[in-house]
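Quick bug: Aminotransferase class V-fold PLP-dependent enzyme output formatted oddly.
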Amino acid sequence: MATDRFQSAVFDEYLAKANAHAAKYLRTLPDRHVGARITRDELLAALHTSLPTLGDEGGDVIDLLASQVDRGAVACNSPRYFGFVIGGAYPVALAADWLVSTWDQNAGIYAISPLVAVLEEVAAQWLLDLFDLPRESGVGFVTGCQMANFTCLAAARHAVLKRVGWDVEADGLMGAPRINVVASAESHITIDVALRYLGLGARSARRVESDEQGRMRPDRLRELLATLDGPTIVCAQAGNVNTGAFDPLREIGQAARDHGAWLHVDGAFGLWARASERHRALADGIELADSWATDAHKWLNVPYDSGVAMVRDAEAHRAAMTSTAAYLVQTRGEERDAVDWVPEFSRRARGVPVYATLRALGRDGVQDLIDRCCARAWQMADALAREEGVRILNDVVLNQVLVRFDNDDDVTRAVIDGVQREGTCWLGGTTWQGQGAMRISVSNWATTEDDAARSVAAIVKVFRAMRQR
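Here's what came back:
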């Protein structure tokens, strides 16, 4: 019944049942069909009913949920899931996330959960150290890079308007000096959305030409900045969502500083290259920026949702985010109130799995994770390039691979569809410089050489079968 009283036996029963279902899912994950195999109507038939008057027995509800996962869920945490940029979940990260749900802490302020506040304080410092960013920076644990970009750009909005004597938090944007926003032609859509949320407008961004790999051209940036007066924010990118390419951040950073502009870097997955000696040079100069956004649920492989916003000017960060109220018990000392650093008031303790994963992996473990994923991307690109009729469209510098088949959009899309239906792996499609492409993103800690080889074999098999029709 839905009215089960607070009894440890009830928790024991439900948690044991959930644990058994979870263990079965994880055991079968490496070999299961990666895509979903059921329609919306079939799922509705299994799950939809009139809202019960008395409520069903809780154990039966758990069983019902688990009964549909094999057919209805895409195995995004599979070692052969290469769609979008989605990591898996390290065992320690998943276990820590279970504790987060069990503790049920509202992580908004220190007074509610000193434990979570301190764990997130430590995790924040570890991240700044791992990325070798200014240690005095403000750090906020948000839902994902969308809100990380929003948070960083809110701090930027505050800072550039404060320099010209305008208090945007108190007075809004009506009558404020216009902010120049400059972004690459290849900036991620989350930058546009953040500009919408901030009242700056997506169309306000002045676009800078990019090169054949999607990197912002710093010469064009300087030309544009020379025409602009007033408060200015420049948005650069570490890791193009299609090619994995990095904007030339040192040149961009110097251009922004020369102009007196705030530089924000969207490093949803690319920022993690800073944790690898082998790939660190890709992000050279990123330390010149004023703010950085990234995801932990991508390359750190913690469960969804987990993004990170980092701002060099901690006071600008706090001013843009903080909330106060008479009834709140907020710190005036060194203790950390998360509400000072993130848009949410009440929030999940999402920094705890970050702490657990960083502590369990250590610096060397994070570096190994990044390097292994990149190696698997190169492995897949090299193997696919040897097949007649297959072309790799990008320079594979990180974990992203763009593949085109028979130099034809329809064939490429048909191969993508065929691979998704075949089920050995799952990957998506994109359009790159006007051409249809298969997009492979390797971000899962569990992806092995065998997983990459099996996936390539499945892709080639589908392509060859298509050619023989």
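Actually, after a second look the formatting is fine. The chain has a mean pLDDT of 96. Closing.
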